[in-house]
Design a protein that fits this description.
The protein is α+β, with helices and mostly antiparallel strands and 307 residues long. The protein has 6 helices and 11 strands. It has helices at 22-34, 83-95, 115-130, 169-173, 183-188, 211-221; strands spanning 2-7, 16-19, 53-58, 72-75, 149-154, 157-165, 224-225, 238-245, 249-255, 261-263, 293-300. The strands form 3 sheets. Strands 7-11-8-9-10 form a 5-stranded antiparallel β-sheet. A hairpin with a 5-residue loop joins strand 9 (249-255) and strand 10 (261-263). The radius of gyration is 20 Å and the shape is elongated. It starts with a strand and ends in a 7-residue tail after the last strand.
């Protein structure tokens, strides 16, 4: 059996399914073995916002092994030396995605498998292959013993204040933290280890991936729209920005000490650069890939609970 995961989303769980047919699994592994340079180590390529790779994992310790093919690898990744073959195999895997998985996974409750999602993944894969970002995982940063916060005035609403904290990606990129926390966790600055979803803590998750729906879910968690000032009693207060890949996913940024914005796309590393590897000074104009809809800015005080 094989586990297939398309590393694509930032907020929602990635699309994932299980290949139970032994012949189908063997055919895929044989194809990868025949195409030299088609695969690479997982998480060794681009970690940009948007499509990153298709992950393949052999699930059993007694599965027949295919020559030169490891038990876990990635396709459609910028780290593959044969990008053409890697992308072609990745596309075929996505095209064969079952509309209804024979094995129901927890991820399917939030990210159901359907033809619309399949077609979206193929579009994002094609875009990634055509214009690969040169963004690489940020270097490890020593965890500060006492990260400082600074209170600043919001230039868009000068009567409002919020806190900016020292950029500290090492906290989020630790092995026990990174895969279990997403952009919403990062922007709120709250490690829940639940891949937090807007509105879930209050029974108000977004029914669709749109600015209005995700905004309503976030407001249910306690976020306030820009210029709805938070009192000092809500210290520490964060400034967050929301963008949407229409119909498919959301992404959040957090304003950092130093005037730039940090973010953490899905299970990938936290960083302060956009898809062009440029430090983000304005989330409205930075390179966000397919996350084309800018939804606005929000304040999050200490009373905001996420899960």
């Amino acid at each position: 059996m094989l586990r297939i995961e398309v590393d694509l989303f930032s907020g929602r769980p990635n699309p994932v399914w299980i290949v139970t047919d032994g012949a189908e699994a063997k055919q895929l592994l044989d194809e990868v073995a025949e195409a030299d340079g088609s695969f690479a180590n997982q998480e060794s390529g681009s970690n940009a916002l948007g499509f990153r790779e298709v992950r393949v994992d052999v699930l059993g310790d007694d599965e027949p092994r295919t020559r030169n093919v490891p038990a876990s690898f990635a396709l459609g990744t910028s780290a593959a030396t044969n990008s053409g073959a890697s992308g072609e195999i990745a596309a075929r895997i996505i095209k064969a995605m079952p509309v209804r998985s024979k094995i129901q996974l927890l991820e399917h409750a939030i990210t159901p498998l359907n033809p619309k999602l399949r077609d979206h993944m193929l579009v994002r894969l094609a875009e990634a292959l055509a214009t690969r970002s040169t963004t690489k995982a940020p270097a490890t940063v020593r965890l500060a013993a006492n990260p400082l916060r600074t209170t600043v005035r919001d230039p868009k609403c000068e009567r409002c204040e919020y806190e900016v904290s020292q950029y500290n990606p090492a906290f989020w990129n630790a092995a026990a933290v990174r895969p279990r926390n997403n952009c919403y966790n990062y922007a709120r600055n709250w490690r829940t280890n639940t891949f937090a979803q807007p509105g879930r803590a209050h029974g108000a998750q977004a029914p669709t991936m749109s600015c209005s729906a995700v905004t309503a879910a976030a407001v249910a968690d306690g976020l306030k729209k820009l210029c709805t000032c938070l009192p000092r009693g809500e210290y520490p207060r964060r400034l967050m920005a929301l963008v949407i890949d229409p119909g498919y996913d959301y992404h959040w940024y957090r304003h950092q000490r130093g005037g730039f914005w940090g973010h953490k796309p899905g299970q990938t590393a936290a960083r302060k650069v956009d898809n062009s590897n440029v430090v983000i000074t304005n989330p409205e104009t930075c390179n966000r890939g397919g996350y084309t809809d800018f939804c606005g800015y929000f304040y999050a005080g200490v009373s905001v609970v996420i899960n």
